[in-house]
TrEMBL record, chain A:
<dbReference type="GO" id="GO:0046872">
    <property type="term" value="F:metal ion binding"/>
</dbReference>
<dbReference type="InterPro" id="IPR017900">
    <property type="entry name" value="4Fe4S_Fe_S_CS"/>
</dbReference>
<feature type="domain" description="4Fe-4S ferredoxin-type">
    <location>
        <begin position="225"/>
        <end position="257"/>
    </location>
</feature>
<protein>
    <submittedName>
        <fullName>Sulfite reductase</fullName>
    </submittedName>
</protein>
<keyword id="KW-0479">Metal-binding</keyword>
<feature type="domain" description="4Fe-4S ferredoxin-type">
    <location>
        <begin position="308"/>
        <end position="339"/>
    </location>
</feature>
<dbReference type="GO" id="GO:0051536">
    <property type="term" value="F:iron-sulfur cluster binding"/>
</dbReference>
<dbReference type="InterPro" id="IPR009051">
    <property type="entry name" value="Helical_ferredxn"/>
</dbReference>
<keyword id="KW-0408">Iron</keyword>
TrEMBL record, chain C:
<keyword id="KW-0479">Metal-binding</keyword>
<dbReference type="GO" id="GO:0051536">
    <property type="term" value="F:iron-sulfur cluster binding"/>
</dbReference>
<feature type="domain" description="4Fe-4S ferredoxin-type">
    <location>
        <begin position="279"/>
        <end position="309"/>
    </location>
</feature>
<keyword id="KW-0411">Iron-sulfur</keyword>
<dbReference type="GO" id="GO:0046872">
    <property type="term" value="F:metal ion binding"/>
</dbReference>
<dbReference type="InterPro" id="IPR017896">
    <property type="entry name" value="4Fe4S_Fe-S-bd"/>
</dbReference>
<protein>
    <submittedName>
        <fullName>Hydrogenase</fullName>
    </submittedName>
</protein>
<dbReference type="Pfam" id="PF00037">
    <property type="entry name" value="Fer4"/>
</dbReference>
<keyword id="KW-0408">Iron</keyword>
Length: 342, 165, 346
């Protein structure tokens, strides 16, 4: 389904999704991030990219698996499977959209994660094509994507200045569009050509090159023991910015949060974890196989461009550039891959 | 002063939970729970004196005996608030009386900063209190606790730093 | 104006004479318009050093990292390290010397005067550009700072007042007092803002308003720990929020695991993040020299500097203590005076 939506009708469409939780980018605290939209408020789609990625909607930073307590000396477990309202997210950039099928693979392959899917099944992603690369660190095209990729999105919107071209891609996406029926106009002659022109222009902007993607896994494998990693991680501070903001990083930790040792009451929770932290690979013996930052950088890059390719035949990176732009010390995954490939 | 709806909500929330001990009967008026860190050389003995002197005072404070007020880590205070304490009391020896010469002076400086910081982020200033109570001041100890309980009753339950699970 | 060639020559000379094993400085990076840290060990690399208002980092962190690495190394290399340091950075070195983290002879401080300007605040820049990325940031003389925006190569001049980091606007000691050499003129600070003015402003709000602010910010914290990782004073081998030394053996019971001390949980909740940030603030009391790194690196822009400056304000006003100004003095929390505030105690 393809439609035209005038800029001023955007709010009308959002209002008609009133039984859903609607999220859209908002500029607050000097940063773009997804925020809950109340009915009757305007949404601003002039955003660059949000600081947090859409993975937060399906893989929240804290997920309660179940509650536990001791009753008459017997442990009692209470399930806490989430049952969210249908959620619609506006303004998803295509790089984040492409992250989704990758996350779906991870949470579906060997084990179907009910917590992930309870949220995923209720989620509709309304993408917005990037007419301009929003950062010099964008490299979606270098990892097989594009500024108007439909992969992982339910709807793709293209900004045509005074109006949006809106394309329903999945059943969920078409349903969301049908809900806002009156807000849309039919596609007229020339609209299609205009969309194509905008898309062509968006692809013509220079992006950070990665060279031959197929050669990267071998290059990483060959350099496993290379001193390059320690050198490139020399100024790494070991924080979690690169992985927490990544649309595809999905490592987690599971903890029991005990509220009261006397009643044995508490929750088992899943929280984000990440390969840059010292306790990520810490063994119970006290030995840490990845004790230095070089090996942790290698792990992050290898997971995305070697192991994931081996397991799932695609890169676990969609070129959003967040890890480069937000790194406090300028560690640049594109430059890292360039050096490893040399 | 306190918002009644807030009080009711918080009381429901704490029914049957006893991560910090304290008198709490369903339907009763709000009984604040205080965690009191008491120096073993003075205030702890002072609280004992209040007890053996049969001074009537509020039973809302859970005493934790510590070697010196100077040994109180700010973590203890943050942790008590995190686990649901409505108030935290630190009590040590009067200036000049420290068993370790200067522990209470160090505590005074450190805890002044903790107090300022807690106030700065918006915790009600009455929730954190410090007192000098010697082993001979059983009556003063009772008074300190009674006053604290009264002030906390007005404020209602502490929900700002308490873990919400 | 600081002549960057002089810094390069000085660094090259230190390396040539073998007085240092490496020099910590800034170079242009591929990731952004801001300079990135570098460690040069060859004389030839000295030409890559830069100096401008995009040299944000406090490189003192890498002196700490080097100490840790040498302590763990089989054959430690304990030769001195050279470091390019702004006024604030040199005070960080001062605190580390005061705490005996290393010795004065272990470090060669290549001081650089900010000459009454300072460094750009990426958050303010982002607010100006509404999230768009700057592709070039340079000094624009007295008028301010030149900024080009990615995708739109016209250059605009933004007044320094609007874009410099808050700490630079409040700075009263822009020339590194602790140094082996200083480049640039000893121009006094700009004195745009009163020291501690943001903390004073926040104090004037009601407790409810202050809590609303901090609840909002603690709730947004991702617990990426970048603030801790970037702080040169956060050098504890084990942080209270990590549990890398709780050893679990076959004999460890479920009770022992459940009851082990965890000051705060991994969950990024308001309450747990509050414990983390407040602990960090208290631990930095009298040690924070206001380099603003914690606030700069925060990906969600939590105003962390405000917490630290609040305590530095108290230290200054109540205890006449300024971190990093006198390496011989006893630290704030290991000293006291009879006239310390007492009236808050019953």
């Amino acid at each position: 389904m393809e439609k035209i939506l005038n800029q001023e009708k955007l709010r009308e469409w959002v209002d008609m999704l009133d039984d859903c939780e609607v999220y859209a980018p908002a500029f607050a605290d000097s940063v773009w991030n997804f925020a809950r939209i109340e009915a009757g408020t305007d949404i601003d789609l002039s955003h660059t990219n949000t600081i947090g990625s859409v993975k937060e909607f399906v893989f929240p930073q804290r997920e309660v698996f179940f509650r536990f307590e001791k009753k008459d000396g017997v442990p009692v477990l209470t399930p806490t499977l989430p049952d969210p309202k249908p959620t619609v997210v506006f303004g998803v950039r295509p790089c984040d959209g492409r992250g989704m099928p990758r996350n779906d693979t991870v949470f579906n392959k060997e084990f179907v994660d009910p917590y992930y899917w309870a949220r995923r099944d209720k989620l509709t992603l309304i993408g917005l094509a990037c007419n301009l690369p929003h950062s010099p660190n964008c490299f979606c095209q270098s990892v097989g994507g594009s500024p108007h990729s439909e992969d992982g999105l339910d709807v793709l919107m293209t900004d045509l200045g005074d109006r949006f071209h809106v394309k329903g891609i999945t059943v969920k996406g078409v349903e969301a569009m049908e809900r806002g029926r009156d807000a849309f106009d039919a596609v007229r002659d020339g609209d299609q050509a205009e969309v194509e022109k905008v898309h062509d222009t968006s692809r013509s902007f220079p992006q950070r090159p990665l060279g031959n993607l197929d050669a990267i896994p071998e290059a990483i494998r060959e350099n496993f023991d290379s001193p390059l990693w320690a050198d490139m991680a020399q100024h790494c501070i070991g924080c979690g910015i690169c992985t927490f903001l990544c649309p595809t990083c999905h490592c987690f930790d599971i903890n029991d949060e005990v509220i009261s040792p006397t009643t044995g009451e508490g929750e088992r929770v899943r929280t984000w974890d990440n390969c840059q932290f010292p306790d990520f690979t810490m063994h119970t013996s006290g030995h840490n196989p990845r004790a230095d930052l070089g090996s942790r950088l290698r792990q992050r890059v290898s997971h995305k461009f070697l192991y994931f390719v081996e397991n799932h035949k695609t890169q676990q990176c969609t070129g959003c550039g967040r890890c480069i732009t937000e790194c406090p010390v300028g560690i640049d995954i594109v430059a890292v891959l360039e050096r490893v490939s040399q | 002063m306190s918002n009644p709806s807030k009080v009711t909500k918080a009381e429901d929330d704490t029914q049957g939970r006893a991560s910090v001990a304290g008198a709490r009967k369903p339907g009763a008026t709000f009984e604040p729970r205080i965690v009191a860190f008491l120096c073993k050389w003075c205030s702890s003995a002072g609280s004992d004196l209040a007890g053996v002197s049969r001074i009537q005072y509020s039973a809302n404070a859970t005493p934790i005996t510590i070697p010196c007020s100077g040994s109180v880590s700010p973590m203890y205070i943050l942790s008590a608030f995190n686990k649901g304490a409505d108030g935290v009391l630190i009590s040590g020896c009067h200036p000049g009386d420290c068993h370790y010469m200067e522990g209470n002076y160090l505590a005074r400086r450190k805890l002044y900063l903790v107090k300022e910081l807690l106030q700065f982020i918006g915790l009600e200033s009455e929730r954190f209190r410090m007192s000098w109570v010697s082993a001979a001041e059983g009556a003063k100890f009772a008074e300190v606790v009674d006053e604290f309980v009264e002030d906390l009753r007005v404020l209602g339950p502490q929900n700002r730093l308490k873990a919400k699970r | 104006m600081v002549n960057v060639e002089e810094i390069r020559d000085y660094a090259a000379n230190l390396l040539k004479k073998g007085e240092v094993k490496s020099v910590l400085g800034f170079r242009r990076g591929s990731a952004s318009a801001f300079a990135e840290p570098c460690t040069i060990t060859d004389v030839g690399e000295a030409t890559s050093l830069v100096w401008d208002p995009t040299c944000l980092n406090n490189l003192t962190l890498y002196l700490v990292k080097d100490r840790k690495q040498q302590a763990a190394a089989k054959n430690p290399d304990n030769r001195p390290v050279g470091i390019v340091a702004k006024g604030c950075d040199s005070r960080a070195i001062g605190v580390l010397l005061q705490e005996n983290y290393f010795k004065r002879e272990d470090v060669v401080v290549i001081g650089v005067s900010c000459e009454g300007t300072g460094v750009v605040d990426p958050r303010k820049l982002s607010a100006k550009l509404k999230g768009r990325t700057a592709s070039r940031v340079t000094f624009g003389g007295a008028d301010g700072i030149n900024v080009s925006v990615y995708g739109d190569e016209t250059e605009t001049v933004i007044p320094a007042r609007e874009i410099l980091a808050d700490r630079c606007l409040e700075c009263r000691a822009a020339v590194p007092a602790l140094n082996d050499v200083v480049f640039g003129e000893a121009v006094g600070a700009r004195e745009f803002d009163e020291p501690f003015h943001a903390a004073k402003e926040a104090e004037s709000l009601s407790a409810d308003e202050r809590w609303a602010t901090w609840e909002h910010h603690f709730d947004r914290c991702l617990r990426c720990f970048a603030c801790r990782a970037v702080c040169p004073m956060c050098y504890c081998p084990e942080c209270v929020v990590d549990s890398t030394t709780f050893v679990v053996t076959l004999g460890t019971s479920a009770e022992e695991k459940a009851n082990r001390i965890r000051w705060c949980e991994r969950s990024a909740n308001t309450s747990e993040s509050a414990v983390y940030h407040l602990t960090r603030t208290i631990h930095l009391a009298g040690r924070c020299i206001d380099c603003g790194e914690c606030e700069r690196v925060c990906p969600v822009n939590i105003p962390l500097r405000l917490l630290n400056t609040k305590l530095e304000k108290e230290a200054f006003e109540m205890f006449e203590y300024q971190a990093g100004h006198d390496i011989e003095q006893a630290s704030l929390l290991s000293s006291f005076r009879d006239e310390d505030p007492n009236s808050f105690i019953r």
